[in-house]
Every structure is written in C-alpha cells, then in structure tokens.
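[step 3/7] inverse_fold.run input=structure_tokens len=330
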C-alpha cells in the first residue's frame, strides 16, 4: 500500500493502534504457550521475548519464529524464559566521548544477568557534538523518535539507555516519557582533566580559551598542538558543568538514574560498578511492576482543558430576520 507516494506506508485506518502495539495477540493453546506462560508467569500477558509480537496473522507462529532466530543467536529455553532488558548502545566512532561505552554496556549486561534477566543490546543514533553538521541539536528530536519507536517495536520489559554526550540524554528522556516501559539512564561520565605546562586544563572551556590565545599570537603552532593533546585525554564527556554534566545531574534528580550516577568519571571503577547496579535494578523491575495494560491509541487528539467548548448552532426563531440570524446579533 502506498500513501502520499511513500512505498510501504500504512494508510491511517490501517495503522496499528496503541492497544494493538502494546498488547500483542495471546497465543492459542499448544507447546509455545507453555513457553509464554513461563515468561509471563501464566497470567496470559505477553512479556519477555513475546512482548510487541511481529504481525504475521498468527501469534503462535510469531512466538515460534522468534525462538528460531534467538536460538540461532545462542539462546536456550532458559534464556528465553527470562525478563528481557533492552540496552540502547550509542557507541560510535563519530562520538569520541562514548569510546568507553562498550565496557559500560558489558557491566550493565552483567548486572542484568546477575538479577536473572536477559540483556538484549540495540543501537540508536549517537549524536557527537564536534562531528555533526551543522549542529547535533538539529537531530535531537529525531534521536528521541528513533529511541521511542525502537522501545515500542522490540520486546523488552525494561530498558537501560546508555548516553552521555550533550544531546543524547535529552533525546533519551523525551523517549522515556512516552515509551511506556520502565527506563533507567546510565551515562558514560565525565573525562579526567589534563595538564599542560603545569596548568590544569580540560574540555571544553579551555578549548576556546586556548584557541583565543593562539589567535592572539600568544601560542605558536607547536604550543597549540601540544594543548590539543592535553584537553581531552580520556573517554567521557566534557568535565566542566556544561550540557552533558548538567543533563546527567538533572536525570539523577528526576529519578531516571540510580543515585550517585551523574558524577563518577568515565575511566573509574565507580562508573562501572554503577552500571552493573543499573542492570540489576532494571532486571528486578519485571517482577515488581504490574502487568502491561492496553492504552488508547497514541497521538489521539483530546480537547485542552483550557479550550472553549464549541457553541451549539443557533436555531432562528420565527421572528428573527435573516440578516440578524446571519450576523449573530441580538
């Protein structure tokens, strides 16, 4: 089906509603059901790898096919009976601040496994400030949309969003607000400061300061090259109280991050321990939270509480003149 010239687009009346997307069809009786019940606790509400089932017109076949391909990825029946914790991995060579994210992701995975969950990693767009044109801000909303839709489309009982660089965490918080899945955010943490000629320097306040000195003729080419190697010496986000550090602090204050997670530097063991604790907490939510419930279709338009109710059409009386009825005068 084509709509507005876009191949594969669904007509509005054929798009799945929020209820259809969030509560997949129950599977008929059979061998596959016993596997589903092992995941859902026998309550009939799809959880684990059976959440957000792929639409083949046959719920049992969808559950079977998922197990076929997940078995090919090395997961056995015990693995597939566990609650699923999705992990959004923003590793990218175009985002140097995130270069230690593979280690962070591994600790989150270990925490999920320790708590009895099944970690499944998926990528989302990674917005690096210095390598994105014209600015990463242009793509923040796109990153939020991508993150939200991937959470909704893929099976997961909870999700850990790994972020850090400036626009990634705001995008993730926007997605978390409407994803209808328990979310925890884990950031890569700030860099460690560097040193140049005995002076403590770091990104990114000193980047502009040192460049200004170079343009003023105070630093020659050799000196500015030395400074360049001293400003960002480790993995992590800018260690000043810029956007990345501010958003990490805000995220923790909002309760979207475990306590103590905003400030541990990226290269430290404290950062890795916090990531493991985040994975354990995310996996433990499956047993504590209530069953998934259906929701009304998303993007439904409801009248604002402040909107004025539309007036009922006036019925002209037998004594009213046509001109006065048309103008609405009294």
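[step 3/7] decode complete -> sequence:
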């Amino acid at each position: 089906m084509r709509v507005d010239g876009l191949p594969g687009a669904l007509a509005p009346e054929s798009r799945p509603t929020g209820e259809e997307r969030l509560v997949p069809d129950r599977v008929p009786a059979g061998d596959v059901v016993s596997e589903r019940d092992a995941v859902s606790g026998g309550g009939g509400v799809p959880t684990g790898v059976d959440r957000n089932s792929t639409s083949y017109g046959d719920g049992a076949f969808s559950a079977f096919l998922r197990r076929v391909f997940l078995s090919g990825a090395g997961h056995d029946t015990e693995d597939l009976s566990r609650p699923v914790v999705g992990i959004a991995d923003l590793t990218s060579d175009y985002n140097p601040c995130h270069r230690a994210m593979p280690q962070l992701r591994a600790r989150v995975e270990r925490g999920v496994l320790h708590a009895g969950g099944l970690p499944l990693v998926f990528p989302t767009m990674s917005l690096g400030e210095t390598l994105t044109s014209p600015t990463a801000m242009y793509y923040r909303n796109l990153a939020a949309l991508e993150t939200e839709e991937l959470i909704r489309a893929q099976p997961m009982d909870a999700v850990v969003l790994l972020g850090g660089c400036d626009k990634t965490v705001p995008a993730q918080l926007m997605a978390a607000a409407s994803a209808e899945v328990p979310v925890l955010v884990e950031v890569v943490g700030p860099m460690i400061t560097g040193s140049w000629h005995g002076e403590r320097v770091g990104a990114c306040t000193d980047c502009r300061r040192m460049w200004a000195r170079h343009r003023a003729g105070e630093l020659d080419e050799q000196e500015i090259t030395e400074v360049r190697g001293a400003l960002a010496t480790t993995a992590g986000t800018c260690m000043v109280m810029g956007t990345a550090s501010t958003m990490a602090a805000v995220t923790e204050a909002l309760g979207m991050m475990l306590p103590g997670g905003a400030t541990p530097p990226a290269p430290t063991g404290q950062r890795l321990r916090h990531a493991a604790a985040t994975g354990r907490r995310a996996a433990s939510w499956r047993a504590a939270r209530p069953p998934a419930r259906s929701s009304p279709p998303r993007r439904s338009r409801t009248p604002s509480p402040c909107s004025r109710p539309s007036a009922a059409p006036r019925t002209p009386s037998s004594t009213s003149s046509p001109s006065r009825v048309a103008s609405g005068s009294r």
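[step 4/7] annotate
The first strand starts at residue 2 and ends at 3.
The two ends are 53 Å apart (CA to CA).
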